[in-house]
Design brief:
mainly alpha; Hydrophobic Seed Protein; 6 helices; transport; lipid binding
Length: 90
């Protein structure tokens, strides 16, 4: 079930990324963080790296109804904190 949910998040992120501006904000780069965001597990180094690279895009992602609930979730905040990435104020 968790794998199905992770795949759903991945699909949503990839589809929604089509509406993101240019290559700078590419939500599909956050797919590596699907498990920590869905389950609260410890994020990998690649997840943290992706979060750092995409941190300027978080508010844009949070405004997109396709995945706002994932971006604004308690697990997403926990993942950001664990990675040492500031939680944005949008």
């Amino acid at each position: 079930m968790a794998k199905a949910a992770a795949m759903l998040v991945l699909v949503v992120l990839v589809v929604a990324a089509g509406g993101a501006s240019a290559a700078q904000c590419d939500a599909s780069n956050l797919a590596v963080c699907a498990d920590p965001i869905l389950t609260g597990s410890t994020p990998s180094a690649s997840c943290c790296s992706s979060l750092r690279a995409q941190r300027g895009c978080f508010c844009q992602y949070a405004r997109n109804p396709a995945y706002a609930a994932y971006i604004k979730s308690a697990n997403a905040r926990k993942t950001l904190k664990t990675c040492g990435v500031a939680i944005p104020r949008c």
